Amino acid sequence: MGKVVKVDVAVMGSGVAGMGAAYKLVQAGVKDIAVFEKYPAQGGAVSNCPMMFCSTPDTPEAQKAAYEVLARFSNYDGNMNLISKVVKYSSEFPRIFLEELNIKSPIQVPRDPADYGNKRAYTQGHANGLDVGDIYFIEGRGKGHGMSLALLRLRLKLEKEGVQFFFRTPIKEIVKEGDKVTGAVAYEEDGTRVDIQCKALIVASGGISGNMEMMKEEGVVHVDPKFEEVFEEGKQVMITFPHSCQDGDGQKAVWAIGGKKTAMVISADPEVPNPGVRLGPNTPWLNANQIKVVTEMPWMRVNEQGKRFINEEMSNQHTAMSRAYCKQTNMHGYQIFDEDTVKRMEEAFEENYVYFIFKGAKLENLRAQMDAAIALGNTHMCHFDTIHEVAEYMGIDEANLKETIAKYNKAAEEGYDPDFHTDAKYINPIREESGHIYCFRIFAGGYDTMGGLQIDENGNILDVNNKPIEGLYGAGDMVTGSFYGEPTSNAGGTVFGSMTTGMLAGDSAAAYVKECF
Amino acid sequence: MKLQINDYCIRCGICEDVYPDIFKRNYETHNIDVLFDEIPEDKQERAEQAAADCAVAAIKIIR
Question: What is the ipTM of this complex?
C-alpha cells in the first residue's frame, strides 16, 4: 500500500537551495511544507564544502555594481531581472547565517563596490572569482566547514516551525494535470510509493555527480578510458560526498514533463586525484600533504599537447581552472616547475597570493611528499632530471612542451607574456640546469555539476518553449545558468547562486499558493 | 566506552578519513559504521578526538 502526503508546497532536496526555499516559505506563512531528500541527512553537496559566503550589501551602489558584473559575466545571456533578485537576496545572508543561525564569522573581507569585477581572487564572489560583495568566512565545528553546521541548525529550526523532512525518500516523478503541476511521486527505501499532492513543487535536487553514466551521456565527463579510474568511488575528484545520491532525479523528472534542457558542466576545484593527496576519499579539503596547495600556485600549465591554455594567475581560482581543464584533452592539464621554484616555495609560499587572507605557509620537502604519494600508487605526479623524462612519463607532447617552455622562459626574461598576459612576477622559468623538473597531472574536479534546467525571474521552471510551467519552481546548481549564462559556471564556494535561487523559489511559490488557491 | 552516531550526521566521512581504524563508511546503508561495539582502551583517546572533529557533533560518547 502506498502513502499519501498532502501539503501546500513540496520541496525536492534539502541542500542549501531547498533549505533556502523552505526558510522563505515559512517566513511567508505557508503552513504545510514538506522537504523530500534522497540522502539520509540534510545539507546536500554544500554542507560539505563552503567555508564562506558572499553577500552584496543592500545599498543601491553595491546592488548596481554587482548586477553589472554578473550581467557582463553572463555575456548578457542571463536573465537580467533574475540577476538583480539574486544579488538582493544575497544581502540577507549575514542576518540569516550570523544572527539567526548563530554561525561565527572570524574573518570578513569587505569590498568596495567600485572594485567589484576588477579583481579575480580566491574569495570568489561568484563564477570566475569576480567579487560582487563582501566575503564572510564562517567557522565550522571540528574539521568540518561552517555550512554543514549552518544547515543542521536551519533544519532543526525549520522542523520546529513545522516543516516536515522526509529523508531517504527521493521524488522521482512530477505529476502535471493540464498545464499545472499538482504533485509528485516519491519512493521510500523499501519501494513504498508516496503520492505527494501539492499546490507547488520546488525542484532543488542539485547536480548529477553521483551518476557516472548520466555524466557521460550528457557530455559532462569525456576522458580516455585510461583515466576513468580518476572518477571511481574513493578516488573520484567529482563528489564531495562519495556516493552522494545526486543522481539527476530532478532534471530527469522535469524533462519528462516537458521542461527545457540546458547544458550541464562540472564546476570548481581541480585536483590531483588520490591516493596520497587528499587525506581520504571523503574530504577534499583535508590534505594529506602540501601538494594540493602547490597545485594552486601560478606555475606553468600545459595540456597533453604541451601547450599553455590559461593565464596561470588564475591557478587558485577553482572554477576558472576547472572550466579550463574541462576544455582540454581528457579534461586535465599539467603543472610544471623546476628546482629553483621549489627552493623559492621553501623560503615562503607567495604572500598575498594563495589563500591571501591566511598567512603564507612554508613548503617542506616537496620531493619526499611526492615520493610518499607515488609509493601509495599515485601515477599523477613525477619528478625527473630532464624535461624529456617528464614528458615521456606523463604522456605530454615533448616537442611542443619544449617549445612552450622556451617561449615561457623568454616571457620571464622579457617580463612580458604576449600569449596569456600572465603577470611576469608569476612566471618562473623552467630550466633543467636548476637540477630537477616537477610535474603534476591535475584533473577538472568539482563538488557537483551545474545546469540542466532553466528558470525565469520568478524561479519558475521553463518548458521547451520558454513558457513557465505553472506550480513548478527550480533552485540551486541545476538552474544557475539562468543568471550566470550558459553554459553555467557557478562557483560553489559561496552559496551566492544556490541559496538565493532557493529563497526566490520559496517566495514565488508562497505567493502563487496564496494567490491561486 | 561506546560510540553512537546521531541521525543528523551528514555522512561527510571526516571520521573515516581521519580515524579509519574506528569508523567505516557504509555505501549500502549510507551510514557510518563504528567498527567496535565497545571501544578498546587504546583507541578511546582517538574516539574522543573524533567526536571533537565531527562537523556537526553527531558522534556521541556513551560511558
Answer: 0.95
